[in-house]
Specification:
It is a single chain. The chain has 6 helices and 8 strands; from the N terminus they run ββαββαβαβαββαα. With 230 residues, it is an alpha+beta fold. The strands form 2 sheets. Strands 4-3-5-2-1-6 form a 6-stranded mixed beta sheet. Strands 7-8 form a two-stranded antiparallel ribbon. It has a domain of 156 residues. The C terminus is likely disordered. It is globular, with a radius of gyration of 19 Å.
Length: 230
């Protein structure tokens, strides 16, 4: 079983651009738990990027992403992430143990520039057309919907030129979408309200720190609510 996810990586340094990350969970094989007490444990059942490319190639003729490391904040049992609800597995420990909180994990995914991301998001099949061993996570379904809205805005020429200040002496030209029509504004508001918590699991460490306060996430302004099933 494979569940494909996606997250938008925010730019951190001046001049950086946001990018989409695709990654996947897999329940094939043994569960590899980290040894000891690593400060940033590796995800125990993430699909390698090369295997992810092979998984989506039947639906997309050309995949132009590159492997890239990133981190995710996920519900965990100690140093092991909890599988998302869509992943069918036979790991008994997840059926008997209680979550211990949120934890940041390191993993590797497929990094896509905005244009390539838009192409892939709008080329993937609908969930109903997927083979039985494959599923989309709530986060990926959200970004597919966002990509469809972005294409509609481009086709309708609902954007304007703008200038973005990168630092005190650097400015970049940008295209900005405009949502000044009632229908567009309503669709954007609906999309934002429908964003699943899992879509916010990729907050960069520069904004959130180590997140070792997440055992009581309600007291931290950067911590997320339960990402799976909450």
């Amino acid at each position: 079983m494979i569940v494909i996810h996606s997250h938008w990586l925010l730019p951190i340094q001046p001049g950086e651009r946001g990018r989409l990350i695709l990654w996947a969970e897999t329940s094939t094989g043994k569960l590899t738990k980290p040894r000891g007490r690593p400060r940033l444990p590796a995800h125990a059942f993430a699909l390698p990027p090369d295997d992810l490319v092979k998984t989506i190639q039947p639906f997309i003729s050309s995949v132009s992403g590159t492997p890239a490391p990133f981190t995710l904040i996920l519900p965990a049992i100690k140093n092991t992430p909890i599988p998302s609800p869509g992943l069918v597995h036979e790991w008994d420990e997840f059926h008997t143990a209680a979550p211990t909180g949120l934890r940041r994990f390191k993993l590797e995914g497929l990094s896509l520039e905005p244009a390539a991301a838009l192409h892939i998001l709008n080329s993937l099949p609908t969930p109903a057309d997927l083979p039985p061993h494959l599923a989309f996570g709530d986060d990926l379904r959200f970004w597919i919907t966002a990509g469809q809205l972005a294409l509609e805005m481009l086709a309708a020429q609902r954007y304007i030129p703008a200038i973005e200040q990168v630092d005190t002496q650097t400015f970049h030209a940008r295209w900005r979408p405009i949502f000044d029509r009632p229908d567009d504004a309503a669709r954007l508001a609906q999309l934002l309200s429908a964003m699943p918590p899992a879509a916010r699991a990729c907050l960069p460490i520069e904004l959130t720190g180590d997140l070792f306060c997440v055992r009581d996430y309600k007291g931290c302004p950067y911590c997320l609510p339960p990402i799976y099933g909450g």
